[in-house]
Write a structure and sequence with these properties.
The protein is mainly beta. The strands form three sheets. The chain has a six-stranded antiparallel sheet, with no helix packed on it. Strands 6, 8, 9, 11, 13 and 14 form a six-stranded mixed sheet that branches. A hairpin with a 2-residue loop joins β3 and β4.
Length: about 180
């Protein structure tokens, strides 16, 4: 694994190294010892798999608050998505800054999103599938979200939004009372 820094401290894009032969490929998608090098010391406790059918569909921007704040490792295993993380760490120099990366089944990239970030993605190819590795279990009472088109963040989505869940439409815009997540 090669870890590439982003303009936001603590947010990484990992490049996985596939071993390719006539049969296809083999790639190591997770290595706890390697991840410790960038400060990930918590164990993975949950792995989720999503499939999103419609081109332009968007999921996000989700996060969990402490004590269920989570680090996520996100990899596209089929199709193509534009994966986005927003820094919502209270007091961070990059508070409300976002970073996006195209993840595809062929580029072998994985976003490593630390605690204190909201996460979401937009489908660039229909029937895209993601694997998410989480350091905290899903806790419905600790979940929250940011509106995908919040003007205070200004995410530049590559496509018009074609599909959005009712839950994601109900996130309220950030106002002067939003101080982020204190870790």
């Amino acid at each position: 694994m090669k870890f590439n820094s982003t303009p936001i401290s603590g947010l990484y894009v990992a490049e996985l190294t596939p071993h390719i032969d006539a049969r296809g490929y083999f790639v190591r998608a997770f290595c706890q010892d390697e991840l410790k090098k960038i400060g990930l010391h918590k164990k993975i406790v949950q792995i989720n798999h999503s499939k999103t059918a419609r081109l332009g569909a968007l999921r996000g921007m989700h996060f969990q608050v402490p004590p269920y704040a989570e680090t996520k490792l996100v990899r596209c295993i089929t199709g193509k998505v534009f994966d986005v993380a927003i820094d919502i760490r209270s007091g961070s120099e990059t508070f409300l800054h976002w970073y996006g990366e195209y993840l595809t089944e062929d580029n072998f990239k994985m976003m490593i999103i630390p605690e204190g970030f909201a996460h979401g993605f937009q489908v660039i190819e229909p029937d895209s599938e993601l694997l998410y590795f989480h350091t905290a279990e899903y806790a419905p009472n600790s979940e929250s979200g940011i509106l995908y088109n919040d003007a205070n963040v200004g995410i530049e989505w590559p496509l018009g939004v074609a599909d959005l869940s009712e839950r994601d439409m109900k996130h309220t815009p950030i106002d002067e009372n939003f101080f982020g997540v204190k870790l």
